[in-house]
Design brief:
Length: about 260
């Protein structure tokens, strides 16, 4: 009697911060080091840990390091790639900027927050980051899944939201309550800011009728790495009344246009 055993191949999902790391094609060069992490080969990966926090880094070449953490999705621990640190210079990392890191640690890391200097220490003896790391013989295909940081947590945009993010500016964002207008708007702003190689002459504007929403959006914007760049500092969140008051000299003899005229423009 012959027994046929069929092994079903599964995919190992690895999450990555899209607005920081860009397109998943960029991550192909890090496949070997990601595989080492999934295999539990921490010593080979030259693992370092941010003292007191669930944030790690691994060497990807002779000078650069990859920042990552772990998150739980549907009861399963997943690798989340955060940033690439060039020349081992942690102080220049977009993720490790105080405004960004503070929000991430307070919401996503269950350990006590250290008030001292950020220090990375060797972690060669660190136990497995998940209960059963895969063996080299059972290595599963890696599938990268992009996530965005919104309101102190990582989220996955829907296909419809992803399409909306590609909308060229200027744009009007509308939709029902809870449809994701705010996270799409922030993603569009991040995308616009990251395209600048120099500081834009004019500010990038987010205009809304709600003063509370403008304040909330500005607060969430300051949590993002893009907001720490020189171009990101040019983003303004205004109410329509504030915008008109700011531009009053230019608009004094102008006629206000409605939404139909704007869409035509």
């Amino acid at each position: 009697m012959f027994i046929l055993v069929i092994k079903r191949h599964t995919v190992q999902n690895v999450l990555y911060w899209q607005e920081v790391l860009g397109d998943s094609d960029y991550l192909i060069q890090y496949r070997d080091v990601v595989s080492k992490l999934l295999n539990g080969d921490y010593k080979e990966a030259d693992l370092e840990k941010l003292a007191g926090h669930n944030v790690y880094s691994v060497r990807v070449n002779h000078s650069d390091r990859l920042l990552f953490t772990t998150v739980t999705v549907n009861g399963k621990s997943c690798l989340l790639l955060l940033d690439v640190v060039l020349n081992h210079d942690y102080h220049k990392s977009r993720f490790l900027k105080p405004q960004v890191l503070r929000q991430f640690l307070e919401q996503n890391v269950p350990e006590a927050i250290s008030k001292g200097e950020l220090t990375f220490v060797k972690a060669d003896s660190l136990p497995a980051l998940w209960p059963n790391p895969q063996s080299k013989e059972e290595e599963e295909p890696i599938e990268y899944q992009k996530v965005s940081f919104y309101n102190q947590t990582f989220i996955t945009l829907s296909a419809f939201q992803e399409q909306a993010v590609k909308t060229p500016l200027p744009a009007v964002i509308s939709g029902a309550a809870g449809s994701g207008k705010s996270c799409v708007a922030l993603a569009i702003l991040e995308q616009a800011v990251n395209q600048y190689t120099e500081v834009p002459e004019k500010p990038l504007l987010y205009v809304t009728q709600s003063a509370k929403l403008a304040e909330t959006m500005q607060s969430m914007w300051l949590q993002l790495p893009a907001a720490q760049t020189e171009a990101g500092k040019k983003v303004q969140f205004l109410t329509s009344q504030q915008f008109l008051a700011q531009e009053a000299t230019e608009l004094k003899h102008k006629k206000a246009q409605d939404k139909t005229d704007f869409m035509t423009w």
